[in-house]
Specification:
Structural class: mainly alpha
Number of helices: 8
Strand content: under 5%
Shape: flat
Strand order of the largest sheet: 1-2
Length: about 270
């Protein structure tokens, strides 16, 4: 994950479960928003929240936003160029841009951008370990699943290290793989089978160790981290409600365009 303990803000003090539930509620709410006028202030507010509340340098955050901007343009243009509508603006071959398809494409692109911004905000302000501790404490996630997932994440660097070791060993032995389809299949056998065998053995040892330490819900456990709620949770809930409510009011009472429902036009 992109979390970095060097950069902190008030959002880092919010309980991860609170952020997770608010993000899910926001995603569900956006799915039911069909007024593109609402999406304009909502997207702007989320951009400001990510830039000002993540605690990371703005240049770094803007760099991380580039893939989501690409998703915005790719999603919106596909709808704009090939959508349907009654008011034709431009036509060339199979490309047909209408007034309705243009605003519908902008709406879909903004929706995808909002999803990406909320995910980026969550990743930048949430420690993975605290997330799973919070899931165990507040949402009663069984410890064997939470600790198992954290262990699997920790094992990823070991798998990459083993992959590099295998590649260097094959180079020393003079093993060459062609770049055609047969070579790809050969490389799959050369790397996948040893890595899979090592992963199975390591997973078995971890499972035995976790069972020996009673990670099977047979006893109450103590926790190293104490995860609870604070004033930061209340502040985020108020900010989240203000963002969505304010965007809804601005979109309906001060519309930028006349289209208020992208589904009913064209």
């Amino acid at each position: 994950m992109l979390y970095n303990s060097t950069y902190t803000s008030w959002l880092h003090r919010v309980n991860p479960v609170t952020k997770l539930l608010l993000m899910l509620a926001g995603i569900i709410a956006i799915l039911f928003i069909q007024n593109v006028n609402v999406m304009f202030p909502l997207t702007a507010a989320l951009i400001v929240l990510v830039l000002a509340g993540s605690g990371h340098p703005r240049s770094r955050v803007m760099l991380l936003m580039l893939p989501f901007l690409f998703v915005f343009f790719s999603t919106s243009t596909s709808m704009i160029f090939f959508g349907k509508g009654s008011t034709l603006w431009w036509h060339w071959g199979i490309v047909q841009i209408t007034r309705e398809s243009f605003y519908r494409g902008i709406h879909v692109g903004l929706r995808a951008l909002c999803f990406g911004l909320m995910g980026l905000l969550f990743v930048l302000t949430t420690r993975p370990v605290l997330l799973f501790y919070s899931l165990m404490r507040q949402l009663r996630l069984p410890p064997k699943y939470a600790y198992g997932f954290m262990a699997s994440v920790r094992l990823l660097p070991l798998i990459m290290s083993e992959f590099r070791t295998l590649r260097q060993a094959y180079k020393v032995k003079g093993v060459q793989v062609s770049k055609n389809l047969n070579g790809m299949m050969q490389a799959l056998h050369l790397y996948a089978i040893p890595l899979l065998a090592q992963s199975i053995r390591r997973a078995q040892r971890i499972a035995v160790a976790m069972e020996a330490r009673r990670f099977n819900n047979q006893a109450d456990r103590t926790y190293y981290y104490r995860i609870g709620f604070s004033k930061a949770d209340i502040i985020l809930i108020i900010c989240w409600a203000a963002i969505f409510l304010g965007s809804w009011l601005l979109g309906w009472h001060l519309p930028v365009i006349s289209i208020t429902d992208v589904r009913l036009n064209g």
